Fold this sequence. Notes:
Keywords: Membrane, Transmembrane, Transmembrane helix. This protein is 44% helix and 20% strand.
Amino acid sequence: MEVINKIPNIHTEAGIVGPSTDNELPEQQGEIIIEEITRNHKLLHRHRLNQAEVSIGRDYHNDIILSDPHICPQHLSLSFSNGQWQLNDKNSVNGTRLEKNNAVSQDANQQAINDGDVILIGKSQLRVIFKTHLVEDTIAFSPFESLIDFIRHPVAVFISIALFMLIAGNISYLNQPTELNLSQLLVSAFSMSLLFSLWPAGVALVSHLTKHDPRILAQLGISFTFFILLWLSDFLEEIISFNFASNSILTVTVSLLPIGLAFSLFWLNSYIGFHVSAKRRMIVAICITTLLFGGSYLNQYSKRPDFNPHPQYNSTIMAPSYLIAPSNNVDEFLKQSNALFEQANNAAKQD
């Protein structure tokens, strides 16, 4: 919310000449922009004023009214004189501090205000900006915006959730040793959908609490789309492990696919819900992914014995149609085995 006071008319010997412009401000009047920010320097409100003195406090006659109970009704004022703004504390109970270049002054009374200084009053923070303050470069839209606009459409969100429920019901059916009727499958699929929807709902809630646009439909659509992709990657991993050895490069590569998908999901959640820098978005996604998969792997390896006398084998059972290469019959297997033994014997004789 911007509060812009009208610039008063300038009186001259010839009479009233009308409102002044930015370049015609009288010497005793200055232009200042005051931003209410959080402790993390997130913008809450912005006030732009053109006047010689700005009063700040809880009283309703102030130019900037703050609701912080630790601030006095008439806490401080900013006065403009000789081309310089000065802070004047009005004997407030908790005092006023000034942050200049990350250095905090305990007593800010009668101190000059410069561009970018942060005034600390009570538990609130005010950042002073002059009109000559440099503005950051415009951020171009990411190519993900078109994808997000498509996924956040209500029809797309409904389709993604319905497909998720279908997969969840199928998994419940396959994992149950007893027969399940349709109503039981629907309850199981619906319960799992509600459980998984807690993540996008939680991200949207945090986004709303931090004064950002929650974009709940976009969060739901992108999250359930990636949940489906994670299940598909798990199915692909089962097919690869069914066809290849556990130590093959392809098996290891496919096992890393869920980590990449989870990182992409967390990155997009951060991109949709929060206006943060690309570096911070990357750090957040890496941290959440590391906590999720790192904790899972640590728990898995902590239960692993130092020595396992039982042979390791893959117990995945799938239909023969999932074989990438057709299996050999018994005669071909014996022929290949004999050829292998003969090759080994010849190599041993040569040594």
